[in-house]
Amino acid sequence: MSTGSRTAGERAGTPPLTDRPRPARGGGPLAVLLWVGGLLLLLLSVAVAVTIGPARISVPDVWSAVAAHLGIGDSELSPIRDGIIWNLRMPRTLLAAVCGAGLAVCGTVMQSLLRNPLADPFVLGVSSGASTGAVVIVVLGVGGGAVSLSAGAFVGAICSFALVLLLSHTLGGTTDRVVLSGVAAMQLFSALTSFVVMTSADAEQTRGVLFWLLGSLGGVGWSEVAFCSAVLAVCLVVCLAHARTLDAFAFGQDAAAALGVDVGRTRIVLLCTTALLTAALVSAAGAIGFIGLVLPHAARALTGSGHRRLLPVTALAGAVFLVWVDTLARTVLDPQEVPVGVVTALIGVPVFVLVLYRTRRTT
To answer: 121, 274 in Cβ contact below 8 A?
Structure first.
């Protein structure tokens, strides 16, 4: 290693590169155990969550309906019970798993990339942009019915992220500038959303929009599940391909540059990836906060900071978490449904305070 590279790392306050922990290449027995255990827990959680509700359905009924629709066997369930499982509860539960996994992965990447333990997907203002896009479609009727609410939310989220990139690049492109640009975009699009609702929406539209903005998985279908799953799969592959790069970013930009990382290009690629994934999930399920903040810290306690092991475990943890949060949200006040974003906030705020307190103690 050159003297200049070592000096850059020392200026960043990091230990010599030779002393830094290296992520295990194969993940190790513990990682494999966590992956297998997490996957089994997710499958069991989905099967049990589908059974919870007014209609009495058992886990064998769920397996029977799923097997029949996959062409593996025949189901003896009535059309009504089969429809409840396959058309109502299963898409909703699977979308909850996909959203939980995606938001948790986004939070993990952003916390490492921005070196901020309090970062989560919404720090970029993506959810506020998605909210504005949805409100424009629902309240103002832009598109004449040819554009869906999800499509409008997706376009709004992309516009918000494009504004964040433009602002941060103009201001210098550093990590703190990205965060500040995200806060500015969030405030701008939140104000636009409030303005449109207050000036153009009637009472019924206002209630519907506000409920969606708080996070809702009700009424989703297989098309949303397929779309979000495809986006999650592509973005997870991209993030895993940059796992070692994220390990380097954990020690600072200078250290990453000393290891040969193209800091600017990598940051743009990963920020675009997380923003696109967040936009897709918000367009389908509304604004669900705090998952990207809470779950990465819990997963790090189990796997350490190596992203090759951390990312899959975080995704599984987020999926299981949101499956049960959504189940609680739709049943705790039955027949009234609580927005899932409200439940995640009630759980996430105390954890946010705890993380903030621990960060204060270590600074």
So the answer is: yes
